[in-house]
């Protein structure tokens, strides 16, 4: 397999910038197109590796995350009043928070 060259256009860079909510100056666009193209081509070299003798795996350390059981105990349960006692904003006996996402 040979690696193929990836050349991002200025339009590609502007689209990526929009998705990342990044504002770019005009002089940055050409530079980023070149640099991102180089990075993508470099990553593409991984396609050239022969991994046929490598066993599929999802982690390599053998460590396991041990968690406690999901048990409700009376001493750790707050009443609704206790839970809301320090809330800066409440509405209908619930926590009220500012919107996180835009509607566009």
From TrEMBL:
GO process annotations (BP): glutaminyl-tRNAGln biosynthesis via transamidation; regulation of translational fidelity; translation
Gene3D superfamilies named in the record: Glu-tRNAGln amidotransferase C subunit, N-terminal domain (1.10.20.60)
A Pfam family it matches: GatC
GO molecular function: asparaginyl-tRNA synthase (glutamine-hydrolyzing) activity; ATP binding; glutaminyl-tRNA synthase (glutamine-hydrolyzing) activity
EC number in record: 6.3.5.-
Family, per entry: Belongs to the GatC family.
Description of how the protein assembles with itself and partners: Heterotrimer of A, B and C subunits.
Protein name: Aspartyl/glutamyl-tRNA(Asn/Gln) amidotransferase subunit C
Organism in which the protein naturally occurs: Candidatus Roizmanbacteria bacterium RIFCSPHIGHO2_01_FULL_39_24
Gene coding for it: gatC
